[in-house]
Specification:
Layout: H1 3-24, H2 28-49, H3 60-67, H4 75-83, H5 87-99, E1 106-110, H6 112-115, E2 124-129, H7 138-152, E3 156-161, H8 163-167, H9 174-181, E4 183-187
Parallel strand pairs: 2-3
Antiparallel strand pairs: 1-2, 1-4
């Protein structure tokens, strides 16, 4: 067995043993977290077995796709994997990543994740509001956001907006609809 595969499986076994110990002490939230960690490591072992190396992602649905395990899972099982990837954690990690370079006023969630109608392939649709975005360099801004998003979770679909865009939006256009129906999930206020 490949050394990397063996390492991932050993770590997964350790996480399950930790979950079992936590269960005995009734620390149930930690049990769920450790089980999620074990699933992630088993999927990464399968990916390593295919020779794809180490991937810096934690989205279980995405890992299942890359490993090919998704072909053996039905829709409820894929939905379960999606539920184990906490959205708030993903967004906070993304915001921390971009805050190193720019000022972030707000992040607005919209689309299927907000409506609770996600599928394993659903995007995490976000409006990122920053005074540092420059309309003259929209392409560079989009490239920057997508590069940062890809390092956190490949399902993040960030759309840049300035505070001025938010203030002067028409409720009939796309941004207006998003602001009307979206939810601020991160704010400096």
């Amino acid at each position: 067995m490949d050394r990397l595969v063996k390492k991932w499986l050993e770590h997964a076994k350790y996480d399950l043993e930790t979950a079992r110990s936590m269960y005995k002490t009734r620390r149930y939230l930690y049990v769920a977290f450790m089980c999620q960690q074990a699933i992630e490591k088993v999927l990464k072992a399968k990916i390593a077995e295919k020779g794809k190396g180490i991937l810096p992602i934690h989205n279980l649905v995405r890992l299942a796709e890359i490993s090919g395990v998704n072909k053996f899972l039905d829709e409820p099982q894929l939905d379960f994997l999606a539920d184990l990837t906490p959205l708030k954690h993903i967004v906070i990690k993304f915001v921390k990543s971009i805050k190193k370079d720019i000022k972030v006023n707000q992040v607005i969630l919209f689309g299927s994740y907000l409506k609770g109608k996600t599928k394993p392939s659903s995007d995490i649709d976000l409006i990122v509001v920053s005074p540092d975005f420059n309309k003259k360099d929209e392409i560079k801004t989009m490239q920057y956001l997508f590069r940062k998003a890809a390092r956190i979770n490949s399902l993040i679909e960030p759309i840049p907006a300035t505070p001025e865009d938010i203030k002067k939006t028409d409720p009939r256009d796309f941004l207006g609809q998003v602001i009307k129906s979206g939810k601020v999930i991160w704010s400096t206020r």
